[in-house]
Every structure is written in C-alpha cells, then in structure tokens.
Write a structure and sequence with these properties.
alpha+beta, Alpha-Beta Plaits, Gyrase A, domain 2, 8 helices, globular
Length: about 290
C-alpha cells in the first residue's frame, strides 16, 4: 500500500514540475518570447524595455501587439495578430537602436591616422594616395572577417569603423567614422525632435524626414558647414545605412534620408531612430 502511495506522490510531483517548466519556456501561440542576457537586470529596466519595444512596434506596423512582462524570468512576451513582417519584428524587439550621424575620415586622413601603415588599404585592395574619398574601401562579404580581425588591433583615438549592409553583389564598403566623447556621433536618438516616413509624390521613392531639437540643429548646421562636399555617415546599430555627401549648409534642423530602400526598411529606421535605445541586451527564446 505504501509503495502505491509513494508512486502516486511521485507521479503528481513529476507532473507539477513538467507543467511549471513548460509554462516557463514554451511560447504562446502567435507570440515571441525574449529574455535578458543579463539575468540580474532590475524590474524597472525590464519594464522600460517593454515600453520601448511597444512604441517601436506601434511605429512600424499596423498589426496589433500586446506586450507582457515576466519579471520572475526576465522575459518579455510579444503577442501579435495577423501576419507582421517577422524579419523586421525580430530585429525591432532585440536590436539596441543606436542611431547616429557621423563625420567621416577621407582616405588621405585615414592614411595619416594609420601612421602610413598600408595594411588596411592592402586588405581593401585600395591605393589611398591623395584620395579624399570617404569610403575606405569595398570588398565582398567573404573578405570582411580578415579585415575585421585586423581592425580589432587598430587603436585610433576618436575613430571607429563601420560597414554598409551587403549590396546586390554581396559587396560591402568600410567607413572610418569620427567619434565624439563616449564613442558616439554628432547626432544621436536623443537629439531627434521628430522623425517620420515620407514618400516622394513625384518619384514614388521612399524617404524619411527628420527634425532635430534646437541644440542639435545648431550643431548640425556647424557640422554640415565644415563638411561641404564630404560624406556624413548615418549609422544604425553599427551599420552604415547611407552616407550622403553634404552639398550645402543645413540650418533649421530639418533634413531627410532617401535612397534605395523599401518601405519596410524606412519604417524600421523610423521606429528605431525615433525611440530610445534599449537599456538591456535581449535574445529570442526559441
């Protein structure tokens, strides 16, 4: 009799454990679960992250999203209806959202900063000479790892490097960015007053209209004045999304981004740049 009772207790306990474990890790239908990389994150930062994610999703998509916070397991659950663009949604909920405008070093200036060491230009198959071009060089995606390995050893004050996204032929280009204090650009998320997606009524192309806060507008006017006929890189989470050449001084704090982007790509940039950066690192729980 005792054996039967013990067996029943064991079965009940096992069932409870299995149920609890399933409840913790199994995502709900039409949902994505993300979890903090740092398990010691505070509840305040977790909830702040959830609010930022909610704003990003609302800005990007017309679909309905509900956000739930599981403080016990450091998780945020994103429930959704319809068929949102999941490739963008997954980036919106875990990417940091570090957006900024950067001045760039020309090849001639970069050569001086590298102390006449031509290894980088050799890897890029570029001869800098007296070239003031803002692109350090372009290579195929397969060549990036070797160049990144070299760049890891390069220590230049007020400079960091960033690649563009792969083009049609899997080519990427490298930029040397001028950085301010704390390795940031001249304009970042916090300096944006408003940002919105706009479609050109004549060409039908996709664009973004940005309005800067007053201090940043004054700074931007000075930056564009000093960089006439040079490129200014616009960077999102370490990737150069475009690098327009400054043709005139931009005063008043209003500027725009155009280029070969899809509507979803532009909406993604708006959602990321128009909101705060996530205060914590997240990963998707499979």
């Amino acid at each position: 009799m005792k054996t039967i009772i013990y067996l029943l207790i064991a079965i009940i306990l096992f069932g409870c454990i299995a149920t609890c474990e399933t409840k913790k890790t199994a995502p709900k239908e039409n949902s994505i679960v993300i979890e903090t990389v740092d398990k010691g994150i505070s509840d305040d930062l977790l909830n702040e992250s959830a609010e930022i994610i909610a704003k990003r999703l609302k800005s990007f998509s017309k679909e309905d999203f509900n956000i739930e916070v599981n403080e016990e397991d450091n998780q945020i659950i994103i429930l959704y209806s319809g068929k949102p663009e999941m490739s963008f949604i997954k980036k919106l909920i875990v990417q940091k959202g570090n957006f900024g405008f950067y001045e760039t070093y020309g090849q001639d200036s970069l050569a001086i900063l590298l102390n006449d060491t031509n290894k980088l230009f050799s890897l890029l198959k570029t001869n800098p000479g007296n070239n003031s071009a803002s692109i350090a060089g372009c290579v195929t995606v397969s060549e990036v790892a070797a160049i990144d390995e070299y760049l890891f050893t390069v220590k230049i004050e007020n400079c960091k490097f960033a690649w563009t996204k792969p083009g049609t032929y899997q080519e990427v280009c490298l930029y040397a960015l001028k950085t301010c204090k704390n390795n940031i650009g001249v304009i970042r998320n916090s300096g944006i007053k408003s940002i919105k997606y706009a479609r050109d009524k004549v060409s039908g192309g996709h664009g973004i209209e940005i309005s800067l806060k007053k201090p940043e507008a004054e700074k931007w006017a000075e930056v564009t004045k000093l960089n006439l006929n040079r490129a200014v890189a616009i960077v999102l989470d370490g990737e150069v999304i475009c690098a327009p050449v400054v043709k005139s001084v931009i005063s008043g704090g209003n500027c725009s981004i155009t280029g070969d982007f899809s509507e979803n790509e532009m909406l993604y940039i708006v959602a990321m740049a128009g909101n705060s950066m996530l205060p914590a690192d997240f990963e998707i729980v499979e």
